[in-house]
Amino acid sequence: MNIAKILKQTAIAATLGAALASYAQDIKLGFNGDLSASPSAQSGKAGVIGIEAAIADINAAGGVLGRKLTLVVRDDQSQPPKSIQNMSDLIDNEKVVAVFGPTNSGNALAWRHIPNQKKIVSMGMIGSGTDITKPMSPGAENYMFRVSMVDREQVAALVTYASKLPKKTIGLMGETTGYGQGGLKDLEEIMKLHGMSAVATEKFGVADTDMTSQLNKMKAAGVDTILLWAQGTPIGQLMRSMEKLNYYPLVLTSWAADNITFYDAAGKNLAGKPIFMRTMVSPSTPAQKKLYERTSSKLAAPSAFPFVVHGYDAVLLVAEAIKQSGGTDGPKMKEALENLNASVNGVMKTYNKPFSKTDHEALTASDLNFVKWNGDQLVKYSDDIIKTMSVNDYKR
Fold first, then answer.
1. Is the model's pTM score more than 0.70?
2. How many CA atoms lie within 13 A of 136 on its CB side?
């Protein structure tokens, strides 16, 4: 046989072999978020549980494009520098095709330039900071997607509620993290849309345990309604500080009040005072109940279950994008997510074209519920004001 022909056939065989080997390789997904340090770490842990459950189910059904999914987990310990390092490691060294997380909004804002530069999909399922999914510049390609709460959607509902109170003198409070300050910005902007303004604004550290100084200023200003943005533990400490002063204005706050760290810090009696929002009150559909039964023993508290659901559904959406794009090329996955052809039957809901080129949020205000603590249980909350409200009333 001609030597040149043999060499050519060998080269073709080697190329085909490499292509087949690549095709058979597992598809790596990554998680980058806090699992150990901040008051929200239990949310990160619950999110990973949901991701792992979805991967197990997809693999049991044959994987995606005949390939198994695997997960590489990195704990960023709530530190932006560590989170940035993790993101580069996952993309550059581990070669993941999509990254889930983070737990803390400030960390996402610190590294969102990385997936955008490297053209790798980031699917948020915990951090709710409004700016996370915005393009880095007007018209820029955007690889940041999310299946979770969004601060501005919560704020839109809470400020609408406050605007309908018969009597209100508003004060704003927030922790000094990126999460807290982003929430304060949303609150100020949306209050302005309603023709409202705060008579006082105060800040506190995420680790502070005494906010009586800030509350005394609120009291002196005549504040009867506080709009508050913080993580679970500091919200609980704020309620403790209110108890010291015997000063109990109405508190409308972030969804972090659903965290067991809030309940533990506030205690049973004080925990029932704030009103906040949440994607789920408790498992209600057969799919939600089935997933809860499967994962509840691993959770720090039942209240963390929505993060399991968000993590689960986030994987389903990424898997559908891989399937639709025919592979793991980042730009093609992004384009697929922005125009999913098939409905995705998630645990939270069925997603019909949840994203577009200009909107990368799968959940909006219509998916949210007003809630409160009642004893040690989260319950749906309603009153005469909420009964008159609709998403059409919300300003953004």
1. yes
2. 16
